[in-house]
Amino acid sequence: MKIILAFDVFGTLLDTSSFPEEARRKQLEYTWLFTIMGKFLPFREITSMAVRSYLNEHEGSEPQLMEIWRNLKAHGDVSSLAEISSLAEVFALSNGSVEEVREHLERNGILKYFKGIYSAEQVGEYKPLPRSISSSWRMRVIRPFWSQRTPSI
Fold first, then answer.
1. Are 142 and 5 in contact (CB under 8 A)?
2. Residues 69-84: pLDDT tens digits?
C-alpha cells in the first residue's frame, strides 16, 4: 500500500513565531472572513492586509514585516522529512499560493522532499473548508488524516 502524507506549511513545517502573533491571527481571521463572504484573494494579499492592520496599532513597516514572512524558518524536526519522504509520498497543503509555498520550501532546503503542493488557490477556497482539502485528495484518491501543531493563537 502506498503511503501518502500531506503537511500544512505555515505553522506546521514553518515556524511562524518570528512573525507578530497578532498579524498571524489577523491573517487567519481574514481567510475565515473571505470564506464566509464567498470571496477569495491571493494569500500574499491577505498577508499584506493583516500586516497593515497590525501596523495600525504597532511600530514597524510593511516591507519589514513582509520580509519576515517571506523568510520563515523551518521547525527543527522538519529534518526528518528526508527519512519520511523515503517511506511515503509527501505533499504540502497550504492557504499560500503554489509559488509562495515553493519559495518557502526551497529557501529552507526541503522542496526536494515534496511530490507536490496543494494550494487553496487551486480551488479558490481557504482551509479548513472541505472543498479546499477534499479536491486535493480526490486527485490522489485517498482519505485525509489530520495532525498539526497546536496553534499558539
1. no
2. 999 999 999 999 999 9
Cis peptide before 63 (omega within 30 of 0): no
The dihedral built from the CA positions of residue 59, 64, 65 and 68, taken in this order, carries a sign that is negative
pTM: 0.82
| pLDDT tens digits for range 92-130 | 999 999 999 999 999 999 999 999 998 888 888 887 655
Which three three-digit cell numbers place residue 135? 479536491
Grid cell locating 80: 526528518
Gap between the terminal Cα atoms of the chain: 37
54, 20 Cβ separation under 8 angstroms: yes
Burial 32-70 (b: 16+ CB within 10 A, else e): eebbeeeebebbeebbbbbbebbbeeeeeeeeebeebbe
